[in-house]
Amino acid sequence: MKRTSAVLLIIGILLMLFPQPVVFAQSFPDVTFTHPNYIAVKKLSENGIVAGYDDGTFQPDKEITRTEFCALLARMLGFVPQGYAVKEVPFSDVGADYWGVSFISYCYERGLINGMGDGTFAPADKVTLAQAIKMAVCAMKKEAEALEIEGENWYSGYVEVASKYRILKSISQEPDENAMRCSAAQIVYNVAMYDGGVVNYDELMQEYAPEFAPTEDEIDELYENKDYSYLSVILLDPGHNYRGKDIGARIDELGVREEIITWQISDKLRFMLEEMGYTVYMTRENLEDSIANTSTTESLQARVDLAHAVLADLYISIHCNMGGGTGTETYCFDLGGQSAHLAKYIQKNITEATGFYNRGVKTANFFVIKNTAMPSVLVETGFLDMESDREVLLSEEGQEIIARAIADAVAEYAESLERQDGAAAAILESIE
Ligand SMILES: [Zn+2]
User: Fold this and answer.
1) How far is the centre of ligand 1, averaged over its atoms, from the C-alpha of 320 (Å)?
2) For residue 19, how far is its CA from the centre of ligand 1 (angstroms)?
3) 366 CA from centroid of ligand 1 (Å)
4) What is the pLDDT of residues 90-115, one digit of tens each?
């Protein structure tokens, strides 16, 4: 089955499972799980920051106006029209009776906009990605930093600062292009998620569970004719949940929490893999996310379901060890196939880059590597209760090194797939 028909199948199953917008009112048939901006659109719509059209669609590729983007940003920042006193704005083309004057006034008041430079605001013009980025950077109060950077274009500094703070995460458009609705939503979501916290939307960080839990037969069908000779979609699984049942190893007196470290490494790795051109999904999109939180089994099942729902080509689960040892070990379900292949690259790269003791590639029937249809590994990066390991695991630099080692392993693995050509599929058949 080709990927497109698989996606249609997922949509079909979703529609079957949830025929009417009852529980998942904010699901859009044109922004499903496989859309790179799915989570942003979903979470913003759940919080009334973006809305769909009357026919239930979101129309992610549609362009939006400068005023509409102001409205999006204003709502994210907590703007409510009731009780807001509209101020006069210094734009000749925005009158007191203009439909979007309150949004424009609010954004102007907060220093997010200053017009086109000629006394107008061009409220009905399409917003370019660069303009949206500028407003986002201002909303994060980082404009001064952007203005210090000299560049080829007026927006160079803004783009650089936005990139630095991950505001361009999951954005694939160029600055000069008109921003599409999905990109606009993603930027606003990224600002909301920004660590420094212009706004802290607790609701945006609600636990989420995949809406698509395929049966074994459906997984077989989805993966039946999957082409493994190239990599495209990678599912990154930061081990454990931030809260709830499936929390990780902890050393309370040191404030060390496995689920924080696994997320921090994964987030860095995600960025690297995206730079390499892969589509990356995370089982925990943000640090404080938890996935399917009612039991450990549900949490693990939800991770596996997500991998299948996005038709992942590769599954990488990141963990930290505990219990009186030292060093790195990488697990796969069995030694014969592609999972072991990837595990070997990861094991070699991490131990070489960190100097950690090499505990080797091992097999185990851990839930997430046992129940995933695609090649999958679980990495125990190092031991939290071994001081020398812990120092590396807790440091920015150490996390970068580990993430880079894994990213390089993925590159080496991908290269080896290309070398094997059709042989990759044959090797895969040896995986039970
Ligand atoms: Zn763990």
Assistant:
1) 5
2) 37
3) 11
4) 999 999 999 999 999 999 999 999 99
The pLDDT of 152-181, averaged and rounded, is: 92
The 10s digit of each residue's pLDDT in 233-288 is 899 999 999 888 899 999 999 989 999 999 999 999 999 999 998 989 899 988 88
Residue 367 exposed, middle or buried by CB count within 10 Å (0-12, 13-18, 19+): middle
Q: Is residue 129 a contact partner of residue 176, using CB atoms and an 8 Å limit? A: yes
Task: Find the domain containing 254 and state its range.
Answer: 216-429
Most confident range (mean pLDDT) of 76-90, 209-223, 357-371 is 357-371
Task: Compute the distance between CA of residue 396 and CA of residue 383 in angstroms, rounded to an integer.
Answer: 17
Angstrom distances, CA of residue 334 to CA of 16, 193, 316, 377, 410: 36, 38, 15, 10, 19
Specify the amino acid at residue 229: S
147 and 45, same domain (yes or no): yes
What SS3 state is found at 80?
coil
List CB contacts of 121: < 8 A, sequence separation 6 or more: 66, 89, 91, 93, 94, 104, 113, 115
Residue by residue, DSSP assigns 157-169 as HHHHHHHHTTTTT
**CA 26 from centroid of its chain's CA atoms:** 18
Task: Compute, in angstroms, the gap from residue 258 CA to the centroid of ligand 1.
Answer: 7
The domain boundary, picked from 205, 240, 264, lies at 205
CB 222 within 8 A of CB 229: no
Distance from the CA of 44 to the center of ligand 1, in angstroms?
30
Task: Tell me the average pLDDT across 14-32.
Answer: 51
- Amino acid letter for position 375: P
Residue 94 maps to a domain: yes
Catalytic residues: 380
Let me know whether 161 and 58 are in one domain.
Answer: yes
Cα–Cα dist 231/343, whole Å: 16
The answer to whether the beta carbons of residues 149 and 156 sit under 8 Å apart is yes
Give me ligand 1 centre to Cα 318, in Å. Answer: 8
d(CA 156, CA 150): 7
Which region among 53-57, 204-208, 426-430 has the lowest average model confidence (pLDDT)? 204-208
Is the pLDDT at 20 greater than 80? The verdict is: no
- For residue 332, how far is its CA from the centre of ligand 1 (angstroms)? 15
Q: Residue 360 in 3-state DSSP?
A: strand
The domain total for the chain is: 2
